[in-house]
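Q: My labmate handed me this sequence with no annotations at all. I'd like to see what the chain might look like in three dimensions before we decide whether it's worth expressing. Could you predict it?
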Amino acid sequence: AVPIKWALPGAERQDSVFNGLQEIDSGAALVAVHDSARPLVTPEDALKCFLDAAEVGAAVLGAPCKPTIKEVDGDLNVVKTLKRSVLWEV
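A: Here is what I predict for the chain of 90 residues:
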């Protein structure tokens, strides 16, 4: 069995990740961070992410971006529409 530890959430996602990293045992070979923004991760996707991380040192689970994303300038004028085909949500 793989030991699982839980950490307290933070005000921002980075705070939650920081709290989680404080819970790591010094001998841990792999650390997985999962946030509640994507609660429906499948066991198969998690396993693939774990195996990739074990092989190359790090991995992130992502999904193709569905919303239209706009780039704006300092005055909030639309500069361009980003190509969804090269964007991923992680």
